[in-house]
Specification:
6-stranded parallel β-sheet, globular, 15 helices, 352 residues
Amino acid sequence: MPIALPAVSDITQAELAARLQRLLDNKTKPVGSLGQIERLAQRIGLILGSEAPELKNPQLVVFAGDHGLAARGVSAYPSDVTWQMVENFLAGGAAVSVLARQNGIGLTVVDCGVRHDFAPRPGLVINKVAPGTADALEGPAMSAAQCNVAIASGAALVKDLPGNALLLGEMGIGNTSAASLLMSRLAGLDIVDCTGAGTGLDAPAVQRKIGILRQVLARHPDAKAPLDALAAFGGFEIATMVGSVLQAAAERRVIVVDGFIASSAVLVASALQPAVLQRCVFAHQSGERGHALMLAHLKAEPLLDLGLRLGEGSGAALAWPLLISACAILREMASFESAGVSRQDRAETAVR
């Protein structure tokens, strides 16, 4: 039975957009001089429906799952690293743990399908669909029913989270392969252009990975619709992330998208509900080959380009202070009138 997806409405608001632009143009600065921060401020204002937006109780969720395809050698690391890194997240020692703590961001780790049994503890949500997906070279990575369960669990998770901002993170050895496959099929790009080193493969290993992924695509020629492709190629963590993105978008939360794998979840979600993209802020362009093309396909403007390729949500956490600053500019920066500052005549400015 098809899953009932959260409805994501169009939030185009011409009048609010015009008011936000007037506010930004009338701040004590040359028009447009804060560049992308001004566009970010307007986007957040439109998402939250406010001329004085305030981000509250940000939540970073790390979605974790294992991939059957990893047994084919598509990653430089063994699958056990997935559960070991989950333990590291929970112990507070991972990069994303440090960055979330530094920036006052709530951190939740979700076991969506890790091949390991975790002891319950604070900060961990166990929504295990199965202990890892199947090998996508032998059949679909997950059944349609499993895909639906993962999406529904992701939506339910967001309903229980406080705040108005969701930051996306993930962990799963082999999940760059799943993201590459989804990108190739849903964006209509050659797998060569979608596939990179992932966790650090050397050049010959990348070529071998490309060959395996090409075989996987050939194995599933009819998996063209978003949910069919997700079931054929995706991970439980990506499917759960898709559900969370859809629910966060339906609730008009600001969605901060991390790197390549998180972007692949947004790719699927936006193929299902295009207005999802109106709620997304793309934290960075990662060093993973294919991410720049994926961002271009999504017409996304990343905030940072630092050569990151860690995942975990680390790029989203690093970009978070920029969102706080953009909101503060709207709320707190003086206008020319309130500050008693003279401004150039617009005509004179235009001539210059």
